[in-house]
Amino acid sequence: MSEPVYSRTRPCRVAEVPRWDLETDVAVVGFGAAGACAALEAVRSGARVALIEATSGSGGTSALSGGEMYVGGSGGTPQQRAAGFQDHTEDLYRYLLMAGGPDADAAKVRLYADNSLSHFEWMQAQGLVYKNSFIPQRIVEPFTDDCLIWSGSEEAWPFVEQAKPCPRGHTPQWMGLGGGRYLMDRLAERVAESAIDVRYDTRAVALIAEESGRVQGLVLRRDGQDSFLRASRGVVLCAGGFVMNQELMRQHAPQLMRANMPIGTVDDGSGILLGQSVGGHAIHMDQGFVTLPWYPPEQLIKGIFINARGQRFINEDCYHGRVAQHALQQAGDRFWLLLDHEIFAEPEFGQFAKITIGATGDSWQEVERELDLPEGALVSTVELYNRHAARGQDPLFRKAAKWLRPLTQGPFVALDCRIDHAAWFSFTLGGLDTLPTGEVLDASRRPIAGLYAAGRTACGLPRWGAGYSSGMSLADASFFGREAGRRAATV
Amino acid sequence: MSEPVYSRTRPCRVAEVPRWDLETDVAVVGFGAAGACAALEAVRSGARVALIEATSGSGGTSALSGGEMYVGGSGGTPQQRAAGFQDHTEDLYRYLLMAGGPDADAAKVRLYADNSLSHFEWMQAQGLVYKNSFIPQRIVEPFTDDCLIWSGSEEAWPFVEQAKPCPRGHTPQWMGLGGGRYLMDRLAERVAESAIDVRYDTRAVALIAEESGRVQGLVLRRDGQDSFLRASRGVVLCAGGFVMNQELMRQHAPQLMRANMPIGTVDDGSGILLGQSVGGHAIHMDQGFVTLPWYPPEQLIKGIFINARGQRFINEDCYHGRVAQHALQQAGDRFWLLLDHEIFAEPEFGQFAKITIGATGDSWQEVERELDLPEGALVSTVELYNRHAARGQDPLFRKAAKWLRPLTQGPFVALDCRIDHAAWFSFTLGGLDTLPTGEVLDASRRPIAGLYAAGRTACGLPRWGAGYSSGMSLADASFFGREAGRRAATV
């Protein structure tokens, strides 16, 4: 007699469950930031909680991050205030709304903007320490243990026209890159101290649902054995995105596959597929984050990016990921950052990002020839830029005056940022449509009883590649993970 | 006692069906080209067939089209051969594969390329008449009753490098624009002669499915009354795309909403939603067709398109829809077509497309100033183009030599093609993942028993906006509609 094969694309019906091996109130799938926060809030709300993790340890893709959270509003965090910034809630709200793109989720943005500061305090209450320090230069993430950075496009056009700029990237006090591991270790400590029943090396292979559609639990698999977990109050899907699932990527976000360095651990889309199996509606599945860490040092921002046709395509003072997003929308795989002698520097992530020198010359004509660009293609772009930069203007792309100077001091350099050469990082932003409470919605925007999602399994605050800012994903995952855990526990 | 409310996003279970009001073998939803062809093949395969149409008449969005079908291969249609073209199946195959973009469906492309010619013959057997004539000039669709036209990017880079060019747009013998109505009237005549049970003014409000997932029929609604249709062999969803559903557009294809003239009748996404309600997997939901009919006359192709920054962005000898697709990917809503006195002409669709003169001048400097573009932005683009065009080259975008000449004969003109001013047409290309047989697939690519889809409810041959060519949608809808109808009838 063969046991039925369960699948993440088809729910197991309650009537088919042979036995309940385990019972809990709230089952959380995935031990990244969203899952940890959901589990902590659920257990503290008095629920029995099981936390299911496919790998052998905590962290998920959150642990691969820099640990930055995008926080502010309510007058500012201590770090913002010490650095001289008052961060009004409405400025945070407007920035996040723009960052969410043409289908920004105003309800989530509202809730987050109003409660970002208190969420930051909650994270500290979990043991996270943040130094009261600010790095005013534009960087990707601190090589030091400093906290506050400019981690988005706040000072750049068009964002600067809608919201008063303020730095909002908060990195925990951890020396060097990789604060995400530190952040996850603190959350994992809190989980370990709690009554949460953590099950590693266990995959959620199917949802268990009633005929009515109500989600009742999970089919789990460990060591090839299926078991049946009843979750009387609900299941919270926090299983990441789908950047590691080649088939889903081809079907939904082929453009994003041009980026050659997917950032992910499991991220095979199983959270999204589980949600869809009971009618959850996945939205913005084409959207993703992409970047090439081309600055620091910030003086490189005074250079100009060109595409394979020698054309500029963005104000280079945007967030590095916004620049990369626009690059990926260009035809052709070749990109260069043009610099003159006065601003030339090795990119600090150069070796890591595989950014190398593509050409040098005593004139831009020489650089153009060396790059094998059509006669005049690069030179006319530089001349046009220089003409206006000399007046402190960039009428075409509106780079701010502080980054503008003509590129006239030879020798000249083109840094090679080709897509097939440099390291372009990516992860997905599309996912299940949810309410701010984490309730998963069907295509009619009706909640599916007993089902919640957060983190990159959901379509959250960050849902538009061109609006992403560092720290948005961790902020969204931890904040809305908490919401979902609390809601599931108390419904 | 309130009757349950049925929904296109949640299936009605067989156990919930209060009575079977009607019984058939195959139920087809939607009386456009896909639905008509599915119903005809099903009834001719010996099945009882019900054809459900939400409106009061036949036609769907197919009837709004020009009636072109993209056909060829097998040495060529009579029209192709008479015009001197041998169309090899492999050239059609390679062109369609490129046109399908990064996730082209090779199985569908193979089947269609091999059988395109015989499908064209089948359409004629339904009463469609095609004149044996060819219009060699580049047009959008004939103002006359002529047949064969260049309806894609066959002669343009990069397509020309992969497949030998051949015109493949076949328009029925119908005087003037709007051959789609003529085409649908012929198919509707065949339906009327058949035993197909056509039910107008009737909406498919929910699928009826067994516990196992197998689709068994439809809940129908007419005049506010629900009825229950049992379809013992299957349901074929041919209900169009979702361009008329603002919420789905925002959630999946907000970029496409920049186009202000959606082409659709019902097209509210209900076919896709019905499929998703039983686990069907919708893919490439961000993709769509978009166009601005900016030529004929074809001499306009010798002009150059610029964006709001004064930059070129495409080889202008591509299909008009590919040019428009690339325009929509540019930042900013302003676009102009630059012409000099020698090639200036009024666009033949100008009044319809609301293309007007944006600026004129005795020099390009004057035009640039009149358009309020930054100094040098337009002029440097024209100078660079002219420099290479004088040598018969376009090293930046690879427009073919026959369209290249320097724009030096004043006075000069900029035609205004702004998105908020001109008429940009669009429809969606994303939909349910299907096998070439029309079987709807779940996210694991397993068929859902009893469920089929074709036309824009499915993700078919055309699935990448930048690869669309006129006639692809009708060809795909009619060909794969037939496949689905036959399969459903004989399973």
UniProtKB/TrEMBL annotation, chains A, B:
<feature type="domain" description="FAD-dependent oxidoreductase 2 FAD-binding">
    <location>
        <begin position="25"/>
        <end position="460"/>
    </location>
</feature>
<dbReference type="InterPro" id="IPR050315">
    <property type="entry name" value="FAD-oxidoreductase_2"/>
</dbReference>
<protein>
    <submittedName>
        <fullName>Flavoprotein</fullName>
    </submittedName>
</protein>
<keyword id="KW-0560">Oxidoreductase</keyword>
<keyword id="KW-0274">FAD</keyword>
<dbReference type="InterPro" id="IPR027477">
    <property type="entry name" value="Succ_DH/fumarate_Rdtase_cat_sf"/>
</dbReference>
<dbReference type="GO" id="GO:0016491">
    <property type="term" value="F:oxidoreductase activity"/>
</dbReference>
<dbReference type="InterPro" id="IPR036188">
    <property type="entry name" value="FAD/NAD-bd_sf"/>
</dbReference>
<dbReference type="InterPro" id="IPR003953">
    <property type="entry name" value="FAD-dep_OxRdtase_2_FAD-bd"/>
</dbReference>
<dbReference type="Pfam" id="PF00890">
    <property type="entry name" value="FAD_binding_2"/>
</dbReference>
<keyword id="KW-0285">Flavoprotein</keyword>
<dbReference type="GO" id="GO:0008202">
    <property type="term" value="P:steroid metabolic process"/>
</dbReference>
